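Budget justification note: compute hours in this period were largely spent on complex prediction jobs such as the one shown. Inputs:
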Amino acid sequence: MTPALSCHGLRRSFGALRAVDDVDLTVEAGARHALIGPNGAGKSTVFRLLSGRMRPDAGTVRLADRDVTRLSEVARCRLGMSQTLQHTSLFASLTAAETVALAVRRHGPTGGGARIEPWPRRHPAVDARCAELLADVGLADVAARPVPALSHGERKQLEVALALACAPTVLMLDEPAAGMSPAESARLLALLDGLPREVTVLFVEHDLDLVFDLADRVTVLHLGRVLLSGTPDEVRASDAVREAYLGTGRREELFTS
Amino acid sequence: MTDVSQQAEVPDNVVGGTASVTDPGRRRSPLTIAVVVVVVLVLAAAPLFLAPFATTTLTRLLVFGLLAVSLDLLVGVTGLPSLGHAAYFGAGAYAAGWVSVHVTAAIPVPLLVGAVVGGVAAAATGWVAVRSAGVYFLMLTLAIGEVLAQLAQSWDSVTGGANGLSGIPAARLGGEPLVNAGYLYWYVLVVGLVAFALVWLLARSPFGAALRGIRDNEPRMRAIGYPTVVHKYAAFVAAGTVAGAAGSLLAAQQRLVTPSDLGFTTAALVLLAVVIGGAGTLWGPVVGAAVVILVRDALGPGLGGHGELLLGIVFVLVVYLLPRGAAGLAGLRPFRRRRP
Amino acid sequence: MTGWVAANLISVLNGLAIGALLFVLAVGLSLVFGMMDVLNLAHGALFVVGAYLAAALTGGGASWGAFLGALGLAAVIGLLGGGLLSVMTEPLRRRSHLDQALLTLGVALIVAELLQIVFGDDPLAVPAPPGLDGSTSVFGAAYPTYRLVLIGVGAVLAVGVWLLVERTTLGALVRATVADRDMVAAIGVDNRRVKITVFALGSLLATVAGVLGGPVYGASVGLDSTVLILALVVVVIGGLGSVRGALVGALVIGQIESLGRALLPDLASFVLFGALALVLIVRPRGLFGGRSGATA
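Corresponding output:
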C-alpha cells in the first residue's frame, strides 16, 4: 500500500547548521504517527519541509503517489495536506466561525472554493459544516466570538478546526496540545482518536503521554537525523532514545526554561 | 474587536462583519437603514437647494469619494497600501476624455471605457506590485504611479502632454448634453452609488472574506490553500476598475484631464482621505475625501492656494492622534492588523 | 564599440553624473529603510531643501563662498532634520510600517508647500561655482566641467560612505542592525541612538546632494517627488540596506535616465519601470539584498 506521506533524503541547512540531515520518513495511510525528539532535533524544520512552507536543500517529498517536492504550500493543501502551526496564527478581525468558514468555502461542500466569488451568497451547507466542525472541537458556544477574545486553549482548538475544515487526507499538527489545560488536551485526544481512518495524522508533540496515548507509530529525531522509527513500545524500550532525551534533555532544560 | 452585532444603536455598516455563514443573528438595524435612506435622499435633493457652484463642489467630492472607496478596497480590506492608485484614476479619466472627444460622449460609453482602461492599466502593472508586501508594495506602487504619470506627460498626441487633455465635450444622455450642474451631479451620484454598492457587496462576499483573511494573516491563508497572490491581483484589478470609473466621472465633470490628476500628490491625498476616514469601513473614506476636498478647494484659496500645507499638517496629526481614522471616532472599529 | 561610446559619450558621462548624485541621495534612504524599516518619503523633500538653499545663497551671484556656505548649511539642516524625523517616527515604532511612511509623507507635503510659499512657483537656477561653470574637452567633446567634478565628488563620497560602513564601529553596528535588529538590541546597544545617527547622516547626504545637484537640476516645485521616485527605484534595484547595492543601482539608473532618454526618448519611463520589474522578478530582494530568510 502506498504511504500517505513520505520523504526521502531530506536535507536543510541554516548556515553551517545542518538542521535536517538526510531524513527518511514514511507515514502509512491511516496512521497516527508522532514525530518526537529533544529540543533542536529538527522536528519543526521537518514539519515545514513536508508542508511546503520551507524548501529543502535536497531530498524529495511524496504525498500519496505524487512527488510534491516542487509544489507550493498552497498546492499541497489543495492536494489534501493540512496543518496547524505551533504558534497559533489566526485572523485578528474574524470570529471563530468566520475563520473556519474561510477554509470550508475553499475545500468544503460547495466545491467551488477555487473560484473567486465576488458577491455575497448564503451557503447553508457551509454554515452547517462550520457549526459541525466547531462543535467537534468544543467551540460551539464561542462561534460568534472574535479570535482575539478567545483563550489560548480555544485558539489551539480553533487551529485544529481550521485544519480539519481543509478536508485533509493528511493532517499535520505541530504541538497541538502545547499550552492546553488537561481537560482541553483530553478533548483534543478524543477528537483525534475519533477521526475517520481515511485521515492520516502526523503530529509533533512534547507531551509524551499524549504521544503514547494516540500514536501507533513514533519517529524519534535527534540532531537533525532519524534516531529510530517504530511502534510506541519499541520507542519506549529503546536505550538510544532514552539517552538522547536524558543525555541532552538535562542540559537543554537549562536553556529553555 | 467588539461584536458589532451587539451594538444595535451603532450603525453596523462596518465592512467585514460577515458574509452569510457565520453570524446568523446579525441583522441590519432599522436605524442603519433609516440613516442610509436619509443620506441618499439628502444627496439626491442637494442640487435643488444648493447654488450651482456648491453643486459642482459636491460633484467633485463624490468623484474623489468614489476614488477613495476604490482605494479602501486595497488599503482597508486587503491590507495593501498603494501610493500609485491615482494612476488608474487618471488612466480612466484620459481614456474617457479621449473617447468623448474622438468617438462619442454618449453615456455610458465614456464610463465603461474609463472603467475598462483603469482595470487594464491595473492588470498590466499590478502583477509586479502584488508579488511584494508591506513597504515594498508602497514603494512599487509609488514607482508605477509615477511612471504612468510621466507617460501621461510625454504621450503628447493622445494626452495633450503637460497642458492636459482639454475640450472634452459634456457627457450626453439620450442625445442631450449634461451641461446643467444639477444634471451632471445626478449622473455622478447615480454612478457613484452603484459603484459603491458593488464594492460593498464585493467586500461582504466570500472573496471579500478571503481578502480580509489575507490582510490579517497572509501566510496562514496560504497554509489553508488560498493562492493569495491571485486574490490580491484580483482585488488590485477590481480597485483599478472602480478608480477608472471614477476617472471617467472626473473627465465628465472637469472637462479637462491633466497629468497632475494621476500624479503623486493626488495619490497621496486619496490615501490621506482613506486614512482620515478610517481604512476598512468603505464609508469612512468618503467622509475623508470630503474633508480633503473641502480643505483643498474651499479653504485653500484663503491660504493663498496652499491648502495642501494644511492637508500635510492634518496628515501628521491624524497619524498621531487618530490611528483608526474618523470611523474610529464614531466608535466603530475598522479591522486593523493586530496580533491575536 | 568605441565608435558607439564616442557617439554617446556625453550621455554616458551624464549618466555617471546622475548616478553619482543618485548614490549620495539613495544610500541614506537605503540604510534607514534597511535598518529600521522606516520608509522615509520625506527624503525627496530634504533633497529639494538643499537645492533651494543653494539657489537662495547663490542667487546674488556665483561664488565659492556662497556655494560652500550652502553645502555647510545644508549639512547642518540635514543633520537636524534627520534627527527630528527619527524622533518623530519613534512613537510609531510599534505601529505598522504604513503609519511611519504616512507620517513622513505628511512631512514631505508640508516641506514642499512651505518651500513653494517662500520661493514661489517658478523654477530657480543654481549657478556652478566660478571656475567650474565652463566646459572641458573630453575626447574632443565639450562637456560641462561641473558635471565632471560632480562625478569625482560622488566617487569620493561613495568611498567615504563605504569606509564608514565597512571599517568603523558605527558601520559595524549599522550592518549588524540591518542583518538582525533584535540581536543587536539583545546585546545591549541602544537601537534609538543608532537610528538617530543613521537617520541624521542619511538626511545630511540628501540635503548635500540637493546642493550638489543644484547646478544640474536647479530648484523647482515637484522636483522632490521626481528624485524620491528615482531614489526608491535605486534602493529597490540595489537591495535594502546595501551600500554596494545603492552604488550599482544608482549607476544603472543613472545610465537608464541619461542613455535611455537620449536613445529612446519616448520609452524612457518604460525602460525605468521595465528594469525595476526585471530585477524584482529575477531577484525579488534586489541585486544585493540580504535577509532573504528561510522562506525565500
